[in-house]
Design brief:
Elements lengths: L6 H28 L4 H40 L18 H17 L4 H13 L3 H25 L1
């Protein structure tokens, strides 16, 4: 499926466009304050510029992580290694607690055996997701994406 046909990508792009518009509006107001003769207004204008700057950094960081995660998923799909969580499910289709524990234990053992393997961390992230721990899933995906980019750089430098 092409990138532009993925609903998650389109939702992310629309959200980013709205946030970018908001940042532009705040930055515009900040510049109006900065041009004032009043020192308090100028200070407020400078303070207002911090938010769009932090927001732009955050958006860039999230897009970088998101695109890297998508490339990792594409690589794993080509290798037929995407995480598939087989096991007993409840009425909502989620893994039962015992199935979540089993999936996580397998993923954790793989990370213990290969701590620098981005694919193992990718699988751990999805095990966390299956167990409902989205915070740890995101942290694991960020770590996996860092390892993935390092591996790609090393492969490129070695080629």
């Amino acid at each position: 499926m092409g990138l532009l046909r993925r609903p998650a990508f389109l939702a992310a792009a629309a959200t980013c466009a709205i946030v970018a518009l908001y940042f532009a509006l705040v930055a515009g107001r900040a510049l109006v304050f900065i041009k004032e003769d009043d020192a308090v207004a100028r200070a407020l204008g400078v303070a207002l510029l911090v938010m769009p700057a932090l927001g732009a950094w955050w958006l860039a960081h999230e897009w970088r992580t998101g695109t890297t995660v998508q490339r990792m998923a594409d690589d794993l799909e080509r290798q037929d290694r995407l995480p598939i969580h087989d096991g007993e499910t409840d009425e909502q289709g989620r893994l039962t607690e015992s199935a979540q524990v089993a999936v996580f234990e397998v993923a954790r053992r793989n990370v213990d055996a290969r701590p620098d393997d981005w694919a193992a961390w990718f699988h751990v992230a999805y095990a966390y997701e299956a167990s409902g721990d989205r915070s740890m899933a995101r942290k694991s995906l960020r770590h996996a994406s860092d390892l993935y980019r390092q591996a790609k750089r090393a492969a490129h430098d070695g080629a």
